[in-house]
């Protein structure tokens, strides 16, 4: 069992013990994920690019917790929809490698539809 599977098992147990599975419909988990993503963005909202790299340790820890919440909700949503998140991430990387070939995109932020 890999680490993501172990974490998934622990998260499912956490929800079952609290009778929260009833609240973990895919739509609810997707909405919770977006809320957490918004909370992450809030930490960077008024910073310039350089400041976003230079977070104070307490702010960095808050950002880490928001990322953890996003990760947790992503894992829960994948579990509820029976999606192998690790395998799907590998597939998505392969798709992106084809959509964004190095020789066409290196140093560019253009979307793939702008150069195909």
How are the elements arranged and paired?
Elements: H1 3-17, H2 26-42, H3 49-53, H4 57-80, H5 85-99, H6 102-105
Helix pairs in contact: 1-4, 2-4
Descriptive report:
The chain is mainly α and 116 residues long. The mean pLDDT is 95. It folds into 2 domains: 3-83, MazG-like (Helix Hairpins, Orthogonal Bundle), CATH 1.10.287; 86-116, no CATH class. Helix 2 packs antiparallel against helix 4 (57-80). It starts with a helix and ends in an 11-residue tail after the last helix. It is 69% helix and 0% strand. The radius of gyration is 18 Å and the shape is globular. The chain is built from 6 helices and no strands. The longest helix is centred in the middle third of the chain and has 24 residues, at 57-80.
Short key terms for the protein model shown above:
single chain; 69% helix; Helix Hairpins; 2 domains
Pick out the low-confidence regions. none
What's the main sheet like?
none
Distance between the termini: 40 Å
Radius of gyration: 18 Å
- Count of distinct strands: 0
CATH architecture of the largest domain: Orthogonal Bundle
Strand content: under 5%
Short description:
The protein is mainly alpha-helical and 116 residues long. It is built from 6 helices and no strands. It folds into 2 domains: 3-83, Orthogonal Bundle (Helix Hairpins), CATH 1.10.287; 86-116, no CATH class.
């Amino acid at each position: 069992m890999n680490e993501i599977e172990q974490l998934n098992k622990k998260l499912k147990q956490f929800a079952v013990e609290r009778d929260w599975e009833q609240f973990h419909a895919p739509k609810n988990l997707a909405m919770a994920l977006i809320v957490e993503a918004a909370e992450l963005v809030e930490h960077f909202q008024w910073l310039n690019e350089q400041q976003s790299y230079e977070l104070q340790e307490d702010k960095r820890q808050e950002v880490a917790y928001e990322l953890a919440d996003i990760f947790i909700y992503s894992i829960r949503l994948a579990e509820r929809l029976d999606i192998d998140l690790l395998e799907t991430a590998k597939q998505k990387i392969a798709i992106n490698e084809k959509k964004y070939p190095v020789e066409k995109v290196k140093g560019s932020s253009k979307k793939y539809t702008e150069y195909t």
